[in-house]
């Protein structure tokens, strides 16, 4: 891939990731409360979303201000306290709605991309 093509691809992927980041963060809190670093680790391990602390904490703050999550400081055995985040009732409702929208969107995209996948399987290259 030429450098300019790689740059365009990287920008497109960054926008794609940015568009689904809120849903991904909320989804990490579906089963249990987590602190920031746990959220970062789960995003990376479960979805290959690698983001920085400088990106996640403003998002967590915004989601909290929207009433989608609560936070509480909890003393840890290892020393400093950790701020744990959990979904509110409204947050659970919104996460479910976002997941349904994502499912509809991704199903439609899969239909559109099926011909491309079939070409790749046959070895057709552009």
Q: Can you characterise this structure?
A:
- The protein has 126 residues and is of the alpha+beta class.
- It has a single domain, classed as Orthogonal Bundle (Arc Repressor Mutant, subunit A).
- 67% of the residues lie in helices and 15% in strands.
- A three-stranded antiparallel beta sheet has the order 1-3-2.
- The longest helix is centred in the last third of the chain and has 34 residues, at 89-122.
- The protein is globular, with a radius of gyration of 18 Å.
* Cα-based radius of gyration, to the nearest Å: 18 Å
Superfamily (CATH H level) name? Winged helix-like DNA-binding domain superfamily/Winged helix DNA-binding domain
Widest β-sheet, arrangement of strands: 1-3-2
Mean pLDDT: 90
Total of helices: 4
SSE pattern: HEHHEEH
The domain count comes to 1
Topology (SSEs and partners):
Blueprint: H1 3-28, E1 34-35, H2 36-47, H3 53-65, E2 69-76, E3 79-87, H4 89-122
Antiparallel strand pairs: 1-3, 2-3
Which features does this protein show?
single chain; 126 residues; alpha+beta; Arc Repressor Mutant, subunit A
Short précis:
The chain has 126 residues and is an alpha+beta fold. It has a single domain, classed as Orthogonal Bundle (Arc Repressor Mutant, subunit A).
């Amino acid at each position: 891939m030429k450098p300019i093509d790689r740059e365009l691809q990287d920008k497109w992927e960054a926008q794609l990731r940015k568009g689904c980041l809120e849903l991904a963060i909320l989804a990490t809190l579906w089963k249990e409360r987590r602190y920031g670093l746990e959220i970062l680790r789960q995003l990376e391990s479960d979805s290959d979303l690698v983001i920085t602390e400088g990106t996640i904490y403003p998002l967590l703050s915004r989601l909290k201000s929207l009433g989608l999550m609560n936070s509480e400081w909890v003393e840890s055995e290892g020393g400093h306290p950790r701020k744990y985040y959990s979904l509110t009732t409204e947050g659970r409702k919104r996460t479910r709605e976002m997941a349904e929208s994502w499912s509809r969107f991704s199903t439609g995209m899969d239909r559109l991309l099926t011909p491309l996948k079939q070409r790749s399987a046959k070895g057709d290259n552009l």
